[in-house]
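Recap for those who missed Tuesday's class. We walked through two folding examples back to back. For each one, the amino acid string is listed first and its predicted structure tokens come directly after. Nothing is annotated here on purpose, so try labeling regions yourself before you check the end of the notes.
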Amino acid sequence: MPQKIGTIAIDGKTLRGSRDWDKKHPLHLLHAWSVEDGVCLAQVSVDQKSNEITAFPELISLLEIKGAVITADAIHTQKASIKAVVDKKGNYAFPVKENQSNLLEDIQLLFREADAVQFRRIDAAHTETVEKKGGRVESRRYELLSAQGLPGITDWVGCRCVGRVKRKRSKGDKTTEETVYYITSLDFDAEQFGKSVREHWSVESLHWALDVTLREDGHRYQQRVGAANLSLMRKTALGVLTRDTTTKIGYTCES
């Protein structure tokens, strides 16, 4: 079995309380979250005249990511972003959505062809998980196909496989289903692919904790460097709290 490796989730968050009342532009930070360690490894401010896409390579340049799996939202499924990851010897698993419509259509076609023959005589890998919690059942199927021969795939540096994730959530008489497609440098390692894709959502829990527990959006400090430093301190505090097992407390505790 392939050795499990770390996941670094990249995501952005706006500090709404930092809004400059004259320019009306709150500070937006793009940060790298080590899932296993519960630590913010680095963050960069997104310039008002820029966006997360141009900030991504800058953030990657600050990190030591050799062997780690980088995950991000579909906005970062960009050739320059992937090259930045590969140049630093990292792996990646990025979703493909409408912002890369041609690539998305090619991947969907590849999976439809595999479905038609029930994946027989096709290089593929898959794994499944089922979770039951609070009366909800959530199943996920992670599938990988070889990216070899996919039109234009050589432009996406290091891409070895394309992935499909099928999620099904049931609670009571309500059932929802979702399918998301990916490109990844992971070579038929369905278990690591599934692990990293699932772990990316932990950064959403981080954002929720920053806002609900530490009330980040309510902080009105407007000096941008200071606001960024305070946000980093909050993330560090959350990392310490989640690793402390001496007291039973949760993110929603009152401080």
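Example two. Treat it independently of the first, because the proteins are unrelated.
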Amino acid sequence: MSENKNRIEWIDGLRGLLTIWIMCFHYCIAFANKGFVGFASNYPQEEFLNVFIENLPFSIFINSSFPLYLLMVLIGFIPAYKYFKDHKEESIIRQAKKRYLRFMIPTFLSFTVCFIIYHAGLLLHFKAGEVMNVKWLQSIMIVDHSFLNLLYEGLILAYVKGSQYVSTSWINGHLFIGSFISYSILLLFGKMKNRIPVYIALFIFFFVYDQMYICFIMGIIAADIVSSKELNNSKTTNIFVYILIAIFGLAIGLTPDFLVPKPLQVSTLAAIGSCMIIVGISQVKAIQHLLENKVLFAVSKCSFSAILIHVLILSFASCGQYLIMLNMGIAKEIIVPIVLVTAIPVQIIAIFLFHKLVTAVEHFVNQKMLKIEKSY
């Protein structure tokens, strides 16, 4: 298991893979959504099961928000793994101090891009959704695009309860608050010898309060297990057992929302499955080597930027391309594959440029903050 200063390299690769998965997932919902029975589905609820079965195995992929939940688990896992290795509280406190800016800068910039595209009349997902009869495209990013609301949602609301300003920013509130929940758990209980009662109590509490936060709890539990001496020194467990654990975790995580019995939520199943995947892969070097590659590392570095900006590019460039080609009289069956292939270089360029912008603004803000600190 490759590590660099208590950082597991295959985790970076996994984060890159999940980012690509989320982007492909949204493009499929927009342009190849047969069998999609999730949010704003074209099918009535009583037909969900039949539609899901009829479109297997594709329906498993297009109906799973699992990669998003696994990314949430990683937000709990990454600082916890480092903490359980060195038990340095300074790193956790430093992350907590910077967390708002780390979230706010890329989020606000993506909202600003959305604001500009909307007022230029180039936010085209709704129009494309009407033409293609895709309800999901007609249901996303319906917000007040006034300047005052841009400031309110981009600076405050997105980190308190999430925002619909950009399609994927609905989760930002949970990501931001969940980060601080993770930091608090590590600082308060991270040095306890027996943390199992704490984990059980927290699991029960968030199961009742908000099950989305269980993702962060399971991330910390996964880090506790992976960093434990007992697991790393064990030589008796067959490697295929860990492969089966990871496979079973994936199967649990891919359970579609409509099949999950209440009061259990799909996020809880996904959190448990994610924990199993992380623990399983931590003991399987062959899978680690597959994840440790330059392409996934590159995507991982700009993963948050990619998740924030890719639906805007889908709306502006891909939906725009679809509408233009349709007006030219080209058949839909030909347009869709062309749009999907064209989206690859377009998304790469857009994400690269946006990430460069985010990095430049972050550097500027950090320099200003440093000068202010030195002045005191």
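Answers for example two:
The first helix runs from residue 9 to 31.
The chain has a mean pLDDT of 93.
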